[in-house]
Amino acid sequence: MNVIREEIDALNAVLTVKISSADYQLKVKNALEKYRKNAKIPGFRPGHVPFGLIQKQYGKAVLAEELNKLTNDSLYHFISENKLNILGNPIPKADAEIIGSFDLPGDFEFSFEIGYSPVFELPISAKSSFNYNKVKIDKSLINKQVEDLRRRYGKLVSSELVGEKDMLIGKFEELNSDGNLREGGISHSSTITMEFLDNKKTARYFLGKIVGDQINIDPKLVSKGEKDLASMLGIGEEQTKGISKFFRFTIQEIKRMEMADLNEELYNKLFTPGEVNSEEALRNRISADLEKMFSGDSDRLLTREVYNYLLEKTKIQFPEAFLKKWIKLSNEKPLTEDEIERDFSNYLQSLKWQLIQTKIFKDNNIQLSKEEVVAYTKELLAGNYAQYGIPAPEDAELNETALRLLKNKEQSNSIYDKLAEQKLTQYFKSTVSLKSKELAYEDFLELAKG
Predict the structure, then answer these.
(1) pLDDT at 182 over 80
(2) How far apart are alpha carbons 189 and 174 in whole angstroms?
(3) Beta partners for 15?
(4) Residue 255, strand partner residues
(5) By 3-state DSSP, what share of the chain in percent is helix, strand and coil, each rounded to 5?
(6) How do residues 141-167 score in pLDDT, each as one tens digit?
(7) Domains of the chain and CATH, by start
C-alpha cells in the first residue's frame, strides 16, 4: 500500500491511496473461507460448499469491505505519521476516477480530499487592554441589602391606611359602563401590591384608603401583562384580549410588612451564631459577600469581552469548499445546498472559537485532569448544598456523588465546559492588561444583559 499526497494550496490537499492485489488477496481469501464454513446453501453440507460458489456469491462484497478497511487504515496511518492537522475527516474526491475493477481485481487507487486546520496567531498579549467591570459596593447598595434581609425575615401586620409598600387584599368586580355591577360579570378575590405598581398615578388612587373603600379601576393598570391579569381576575389568558376596563376593587384587608429588627435573633438566623453580632459587622459581611458574589459576574463579563474580541480580530482562513462538502457527507440527515449556505457562517464562527480555544489550551499547556474535574464537581455540589442552607456531606459521599454525576454524558459535558471556561478566564486575567472599572449596580446589570 502506498499513499501519495498532492498539495492543492495551503488549506487543501488530495491523498491518493494505492492498493496492490498483494495487499488484499490473502485477507479476502480468509474472509471467504469463513463464509464457506458457515454458509447454508441447499444441496451442500455446511463447510463443504465449493469455494468458487462462495466467491461468486460474496466475493465483490468481501473485496469492497477489505478495500474499505485497508483504505481507512492507510489514510489515518499516513495522517498520524506525517502529523497532518486536518479538519473533519478525509472525503472521497467526487471528480476522481476510481482505478480498479471488481470484476477483474488487480491494483486499486482511491483519492480523498482533506482540509488542513489553519495556522494562525492570537491577537492578545500583555499589551492588550480590557475593562474589568466591577459593581461599586457603596452605602446605598448595602442599605438595600439590609432592607431586603429585614423584609425577608419580617412579618405581615394589619394596617389602617394604605401606604406605598402595602399589600391590598380585596375583590375585583366587573361593572357596566354606567358604574353598576354587571350581571354575570367577573368577580374574583385577589391582591394588589403597592410596591410593584409601575404606574405611580394609579398608585395614588389607593394611597390613604381604608378597609371597605371601593376604587373603580381598569385592572390592566395594576397588572403586569396578560398572564398576570388573567391570574388577578381568575380567568383564562385567552379571555384577557377583549376584557372590559370597567371594574371595582373593594379593599377587604391592608397588610404591611413589619421589618425585622437588627438584633442578635436576626443575625443568628442569617449566619452561624456568634459570627455577626452588630449592625456594623452585618454591613461588613454583606459588603464582603457582595464583592465575592459579583466577582464571578465580573469574570464572566471579561471572558465575554475577550471572546468577542478574539472572534472579531483573529484572522483565520478556512477551506470552505471542503468544509461544505464534509458537512453534507457527515450529517445524519440529508442537507440541501441552501441549508448548508444558510447556517455556514454560524458553523464557521463555532469552529473558529473551537480552534482558538484549542490553541490557547495547547500553547499554554492548560489541561483538565480527571482529579481536577472531580474536585471541581465536588465544589459545585457543596455550593448547591450551601445555597439551600444544608451542610455538605462527608468527603467520601461527596466524591461518590461527583463520580456518579460525571458518568452522565450531558452533565459531564456541562461540567467540563464550565471548568474549561474557568481556566480560560484565569488565562485571560493573567495574560492581558486589566483596567478596573467600578459601575453602579444598575449599570452593571445592563452591561451584563448585553
Answers:
(1) yes
(2) 12
(3) 5, 112
(4) 158, 167
(5) 50, 20, 30
(6) 999 999 999 999 999 999 999 999 999
(7) 2-116 (3.30.70.1050), 155-258 (3.10.50.30), 278-449 (1.10.3120)
